[in-house]
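User: We ran a pulldown and think these components assemble together. Before we commit to crystallization trials, I'd like a predicted model of the whole complex to look at. Sequences follow.
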Amino acid sequence: MNVRGGSGVNRIATRPVTSLIYFAVLLGILLATCQQASALPAFARKYGMPCSSCHEAWPMLSPFGQQFKDNGYQMGNDRDAPIFQQAAYWPVTFRMTPVWHRESTDKMAVDSPDGTPLGSEAKVTTHGFDWSGLDFHTGGTLAKNFSFYVLPSSDNTGAFHFETVFARLDNIAGSSWLNIKLGKFELDNLLSEKRILTLTNVSGVYENYHFQPVGESYTFGIGDNQVGLEWMGHSKDDRTRVSAALLSSNDGSPGLPTSRGYDGFFAASRAFEVGGFGLQRVGAFAYFGEAPTYYQFTQTAPDQDGVNQTVPVAGTGIGNKGFQRYGLIGMWYIKKFDITTIYFHGHDSAWLGTNTAATPGATLPTGAHSPSWNGGLFESHYMPNPQIMLINRYELTRMSQQAFGGAPTTYYTPYAGNLGNADVLTFGLRYYPFISSRAGFAYHAEYAIIWQKGVSPVTATNTSTSSLLFGFDFAF
Amino acid sequence: MLNIKKVCLNVAVTLILPAFAMAQGDQSPAAKPNPNMESHVGNLTGHSKAGGDLYYRYCWGCHGARGNGDGENAPYLNILPRNFVAAAFKCRSTPTGTLPLDQDLYNSIARGFNFTNMPSWAALTAQNRADLVAFIKTFSARWVTEKPGDPIQIPAEPALTVASIKHGGELFQKLECWKCHGQEGRGDGPSASTLTDSNDQPIRPYNFTSDNRSKCGRTNQDVYKIFMTGLDGTPMPSFADVIKPEEAWDLVHYLRTLQVNNSSPELTLWESTPEGKEIVAAKKVRNTYTGSGIIP
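Assistant: Here's a predicted model for the assembly, 772 residues in total across the polymer chains.
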């Protein structure tokens, strides 16, 4: 950067029209289901710092931003409490993304009026202008070492839910190793899905964080916010981080809808410096969960057509069976280039894998196995300067054991060994025409495609689904 | 030997030198900043080019694109960001009016400044911080025309005694520290409201009861250095010509007893005496936690 002539940041910021035209050629599309992400101009306004301080490229955190978050959204300078802010300061940030996007899937079950036979498959493509849901972030400190975060979030019809709701006791007894959080929150995933840089329908979430074998009915995603109690500790410089959480077994749903079970999540990581390359970090995580296989009680209730249906009574799920998710993560920096690598392993009980109620005396179906799989993620970023980020991500998941595997017998037909295997490839570009402590704006362009084995709805053949998106991602 | 005139002279020098340096930096045609600087911190060598990239990511919002402390957020800060063009730095190991060591700037970046908007940047790598130090030095011609001062010598801390604490209290009175810092060290002395820094901005004296972190660090050595080097750009002068090293240590011991809300060996010893116990008890304010983190 030319110091005396002003920063590159300023030079580019003074040419918004040129930059807009340039990127308008490249960008066209945007995704309708933008993921909730924590990029808060409210914090930037509070501390008077540019968003680039806490974010490599918002919403992705920098090491400094991670430290700020781990410290309870505090800088630690005894200027963190709300009493030091102007009385008019309100810790609120809105984020929304108007987009144009194109969605295409090659094998969708159709029953169209043009004469296509019932139950056939066809390629379906659509495109148009759209918008994301609204994220309504509010967070910060209630007092020194008392922090909070509330995130009402809507889909693009305006239907709201609470994505995040927690309060946190920070630095208990003056120790950075003792922080307690209660509420609904994102698991301590180093690669945060809530700060994901990609927005398309295909790549707006991490495939590995939500993958489940074909045929399962319980729902869990390690990328989903969960409800519970978390202990988190870190060294003063945030090089070492550890956390453990006790969570209700309901995948973050409100109202205790499933069982009385509890899950556990554990994460640890250590960062180290490698010369002038930057801060490298390696870590591991493990989730031990359980899900009910049937309900203790059901009741009849009329459906929308007035027909009585048997429905489970919320909270009475029993016959719980376990599932696990493990992973290793590395975050590697080579100056302006960085790559995150994850090895992921999933394992489900055979009861869950085969959707078998574990009633007293019940046995598993013939040929039932515990499904397990392995996954990998490689996400790289190149940032020539704080205004531009090029993104590439490749994810893969490979089944290592199907719920019904092995050789065919007279009693059952096993799943194909590769059933459900997925590959996701994503390319993206984000350009921030200005970097400010008041608001954020990004031109966003992205293309993503997912290939899956044997999951087409009618012929059970391979499928591919792609998404192209262009939009204006802004927060204020 | 205590010499109040020397103290006053030091105050004047502390405030005038940075302004003079700033004027030199802006006006002297002969002295131009060097855009290619290095820093040397331990085994690290910082490079200004790499530091520039970091500066325009993390620092420019407050310190300004040209390093003169006029970033777009500066008007909203009640303690203005450091003006790197003036090259007057508070926390140094070097005598008042001289440039700091690279290590001093490195430590300041890592530590941050309590009660200001300058956070700790310990999350950055050591190389990053060294690069930033190198880049900061590209803003002022002082780094071309001058060398950092020789670091002051810090003698070993003498044994902590009640006599040392009491003598420090006497020095606190004789040096008239109370005029700014207040008799109880709460930063509310009779002169407190009149003080300004080298930017003509009001500046409040340090409130010793608020924390056990001083502007320039947490250790007794850090406090000692403040007496002997002053905080350039603020009304806090250097006492290097006024008090002896052993007297400075007495003063350090006494000031620790003013930090009544933070445990320390000095406070423990002082409270073990009937006189100290009574004084400390009178200073402590209870049941007034406001959530600010600062106990009044």
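The first helix of chain B runs from residue 4 to 27. That may be worth checking against your pulldown data before setting up trials.

User: Thanks, that helps.
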